[in-house]
Specification:
Layout: E1 11-18, E2 21-28, E3 40-45, E4 49-53, E5 56-61, E6 67-74, E7 76-93, E8 96-105, E9 108-118, E10 123-130, E11 133-138, E12 143-151, E13 154-160, E14 165-171, E15 180-188, E16 192-208, H1 219-235
Length: 252
């Protein structure tokens, strides 16, 4: 979560051309403590809140019984090749919290990479969930940076180890098309507070999802995503608190 030197927000959205191929770069450092409704919308399942405060996005889910999810999503569909990155920090937690940089469509809303923890079990892991299963890399860290790349029909999930990007898993043959993109947080039987910062996206195209800024309504997509996250969280949880470096695919 880098140190900020300016009180002014940096929101950048520009078009570039590379070898004759047009594209868009979007960057938001959330420094003005006011959510840009032309770029973002938030929705919560059951319990929680999503706010732009302290020059970052803070997501909070209070202590509860069962599963809850709080999310912030782009108001654009992401098309073609893309490279998406975001910083995260788990500020406090109990139970079994998790977070993810997710993308998908209404037919398969559960593609993504992220980090999840089992506070009681004393372990955590980065994960990549693609169509060929869920892959894990153990990690005790509570801060870091996630990256997801789509190149053609291949998706790759990465985490930053402080010196270089480390591949969690790469999967060819994924569905193509214009997909939504979310920063998601969830908790099972406990509380969690997570921060996201310095969101970066380079994409071939961005298509507005809603007709007017601020009218972010994704009820159908949200329900599909929430179902997918709940299923992933229940089925993909590692049973071994000290798993090997890569657990391999677990088909859901």
């Amino acid at each position: 979560m880098g140190t900020h030197t300016s009180a002014m927000a940096l929101f950048l959205c520009l078009t570039f051309t590379n070898a004759g191929k047009a594209g868009t770069i979007t960057f938001d450092d959330f420094d003005d403590n006011s959510l840009n409704l032309s770029l973002w919308g938030a929705f919560v399942m059951d319990y929680g809140s999503v706010n732009e405060v302290n020059q970052r996005i803070e997501v909070s889910i209070p202590a509860h019984s069962g599963f809850s999810s709080a999310n912030i999503g782009l108001t654009f569909l992401v098309g073609g090749d893309f490279d998406a990155q975001v910083d995260f920090a788990v500020l406090s937690s109990s139970g079994t919290p998790g977070l993810a940089l997710s993308t998908g469509n209404p037919l398969d809303p559960s593609v993504g990479c992220g980090h999840m923890m089992d506070v009681g079990g004393g372990f955590g892991s980065y994960f990549a969930r693609f169509c060929d299963g869920v892959w894990f890399v153990p990690s005790p860290e509570t801060t870091g940076r996630l990256r997801m790349v789509r190149s053609g029909s291949t998706y790759s999930g990465y985490f930053w180890d402080g010196a270089a990007w480390q591949l969690i898993h790469s999967s060819p043959g994924q569905p193509a098309g214009d997909w939504w993109m979310l920063l998601s947080t969830w908790s099972v039987n406990g509380s969690v507070q997570v921060a996201f910062d310095n969101f970066y996206l380079e994409a071939d195209s961005l298509t507005p999802m809603v007709p007017e800024p601020g009218s972010f309504t994704l009820a159908g997509i949200a329900l599909g995503l929430i179902w997918a996250i709940g299923k992933r969280r229940q089925a993909a949880r590692p049973s071994n608190p000290n798993p090997p470096h890569t657990l391999g695919a677990q088909n859901l």
